[in-house]
Amino acid sequence: MSVSKLLSAASGAASGGGLDVDDVYSTFLYTGNGSTQTITNNIDLAGEGGLVFIKRREGSANNWGWYDTVRGPDSHLKSNAQNAENTQADVEVKDFNSDGFDLGADHNAFINTNGGSFCSWTFRKADKFFDLKSVSHTNGSTTTLDFSSLGTIGMGIAKRVDSSGEWFVQHRADTSKQILLNSSATATTAETDFGISGTNFRLHANAPSGTYIVYCFAHNDDDGEFGSSGDQDIINCGSYTGAASTSSPTVDLGFEPQFVLTKRLNATGNWIIQDNMRNGVNLTSSDMLFPNLSNAATTATTPTIAPNSSGFTIVDGGTNYNASGETYIFMAIRRGSLNELSATNKAFKVLHPKELQGTKITTGFALDMQIATYSVFAGDIELYDRLRGVRTGSHTFNTPELVVNGGGAESTNSSSTQGVDNTGFETSSLYHNSDTIYWNWKRAKGFFDIVEFVGDGSAGNHAHSLGVAPEMFWIRSRGSASWAVFHASHGATKGLFLNDSGTGATTSGFFNDTAPTASVFTVGASFNQASSTMCYLFGSLAGISKCGGYTGNGSSQTINCGFSSGSSYVLIKRTDNAGGWHAFDSARGIVAGNEQALLYNDASKVDNTDSIDPDNSGFIVNQNTTTNLNDNGATYIFYAIAA
Known about the structure:
With about 650 residues, the chain is mainly beta. It folds into 6 domains: about 100 residues, no CATH class; about 90 residues, no CATH class; about 100 residues, no CATH class; about 90 residues, no CATH class; about 90 residues, no CATH class; about 100 residues, no CATH class. Helix content is about 5%, strand content about 40%. The strands form 14 sheets. The chain has a 6-stranded antiparallel beta sheet, with no helix packed on it. A hairpin with a 7-residue loop joins strand 47 and strand 48. The longest helix is centred in the first third of the chain and has 9 residues. It is elongated.
């Protein structure tokens, strides 16, 4: 890192150096209460400043609310209208906090209506990301605002606030044009002195005199200063040319997006916001909102944008996204968690409801993957993930599930739908009143990642965002197929099946005899088929997670994982002979006595065996003739997560 970046990282403030994506941007879902409530999204608006815009997702048409720290709380603008700002004390966004914002009683009935389903998007002021300024403009002269802190300006929005007026937008993709955020209209030729000019944004001389708010968003191009190394990009403002295809074009951002704003430039078309909290940036369905319209969210039953580890592919051939030869502009925000987890923020939780708890269960984070099954009788072990799509809030989607203990194709089952928000998940009636176990993961550097890919029938490499070489990964086609497992202690020349107790096979068809790296994993021809395929990647992160192996001693032995307070989850598989995938967790008990093992390969349960015991450094494995997890001379692999 350069000296300037080191100083920026040390000082914090508005600099990008050292900041995570999650420090400066948030998509946050909430349910209105018609009174007051605090939205805690961990964005410092009180100290650093920024912008929040909010939209109700369902019900009848509702206006957008735009709020910022320059104009102050209580003052709202509507991106779907030309209205001047409206100020109502303590009834809309009433305070900006160091970790989010406070809502009032919703006088205008569109940001906190009791029982309503809402989404908020927060942009914190930060170098190389976002800035905002208020200015008094005089007709007849050009007003120039300095946004040099952003480096390259990707997109600017200007709105008069003391009187009605259009929302004027200019995007770096074509600075000869101007667009209206409050309209679906085609771009028009910009005033000669309007918009982006180097590191400045200008209000043109012909604009009426008055007070204006200007929001500017950066464009990173290998010059972002985010993440622990201060060298990562998190925002990209670009364009693509439509192909009227369901498999192209592919846009290279250099990162996987969590938020994408798009607009057809030279023809009529709505502005569209999609994000991975509302099921929008995913592979199976959409929850689209339009900043220029008061409409409720529109649900699409076909894919639109398919993210990957370095960008996204347009998989909708319609005119909203992909008319042949047409230019589309976009703004994309990187998926969160550039920095590693800490010992106090492990982003993993195992839950085991034993009685009716209602349908909302709190994890403390927005989970990216969940594996769920009954723990008192046999039932499939079902895997859900946010990349393929989940139900969010009151919008009901049939959540795609993959069965861990089987090889059947991905299916959707509304009765087992899992809904995700920023603090946990909703369960369906199928699960919330039963003795059910939930294992929940959040994607984070060095810990866990998810990739969707389409192969070509030959061995090939695929990029990932784990940040380190994965020490275990699972590959599974969304069609009918077995689960292929790589584990570093087992080696890249052979593979295992997660849905089978056997020893796997020694063949290049699994991983082409090639170990993964910090940037790619290799898939052999047998598992690199030309169909949508999921890969779940796990890393060894000091003090938090450990992939390893051991040789049985026929008695008991301590497996040191480098933890300080023991394990909350342990998965063990014998590799030199047949043996199931035994899962243990602290919710059901990792105790100095009998505990229950759940077998991933066949969904069976093994009760009342003393297979493992707790140990602060990891866990103790014992030998018994039921689970056979410490046979003398036998070889085993494991994956453990710290408590």
